């Protein structure tokens, strides 16, 4: 079964457009969704999450349309933004009290485990957190409600190399599970070298590649060298 399936999606807003986007996200794998900044990765994620409407086409999550069963489907999704869109005057404790009722399977013990693992202070305001700490909090939230699909929108953007590698290690360790699917959007190719099984490459509003990484590596070779 596919965790996500896009069929002939077209979308236009002002001068920007997506053209006949079709791809599948197989369940149980880590999918790298790659492309330069501004090519439409975040727009496609917003379409998947039913935050905006396509002009035409169909999007299925676990073989269901979001509009037909939005609450149950979103209950299964752990979403990690590149930024934490929460009140920065709140503490982690207050954030949990706000978020927990939205999820049927929220687990306080699991959340507390990750907050402790990431060495995050429960009673300090979010505005005192570094970018890396905010990202770890986003991960802790996503990991704490028995999600089956994890959608990560540029999770390492703006992080220094040490914290970026730490975040990727966390994702790799915690989410490599045949029951879980990871859809990782990034423009940083090195982010995918350790963890991706499958690649979807978008360029100029169109899908250029869509295949398992092992198969792509047999079809293409990367040549490195100086300009001479």
Automatic annotation (TrEMBL):
Q: Note the superkingdom of the native organism.
A: Bacteria
ABC transporter domain location: 1-225
Q: Mind listing the UniProt keywords for this protein, alphabetically?
A: ATP-binding, Nucleotide-binding, Transport
Q: Does the keyword ATP-binding apply?
A: yes
**What Pfam families does the entry give?**
ABC_tran
Write out the GO MF terms.
ATP binding; ATP hydrolysis activity
Q: What is this protein called?
A: ABC-type multidrug transport system, ATPase component
Which organism does this record belong to? Staphylococcus cohnii subsp. cohnii
């Amino acid at each position: 079964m596919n965790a996500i399936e896009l069929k002939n999606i077209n979308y236009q807003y002002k001068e920007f457009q997506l053209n006949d986007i079709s791809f599948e996200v197989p369940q149980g794998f880590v999918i790298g969704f790659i492309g330069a900044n501004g090519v439409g990765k975040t727009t496609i994620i917003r379409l998947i999450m039913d935050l905006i409407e396509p002009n035409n086409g169909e999007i299925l999550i676990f073989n269901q349309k979001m509009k037909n069963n939005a609450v149950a489907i979103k209950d299964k999704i752990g979403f990690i933004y590149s930024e934490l869109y929460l009140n920065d005057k709140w503490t982690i404790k207050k954030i949990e009290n706000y978020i927990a009722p939205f999820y049927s399977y929220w687990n306080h013990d699991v959340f507390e485990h990750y907050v402790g693992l990431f060495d995050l202070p429960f009673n300090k305001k979010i505005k005192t957190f570094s970018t890396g700490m905010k990202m770890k909090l986003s991960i802790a939230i996503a990991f704490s409600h028995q999600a089956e699909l994890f959608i990560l929108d540029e999770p390492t953007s703006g992080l220094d190399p040490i914290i970026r590698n730490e975040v990727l290690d966390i994702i790799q360790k915690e989410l490599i599970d045949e029951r879980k699917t990871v859809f990782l959007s990034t423009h940083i190719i090195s982010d995918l070298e350790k963890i991706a099984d499958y690649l979807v490459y978008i360029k100029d509003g169109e899908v250029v590649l869509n295949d398992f990484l092992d198969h792509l590596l047999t079809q293409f070779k990367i040549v490195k060298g100086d300009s001479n």
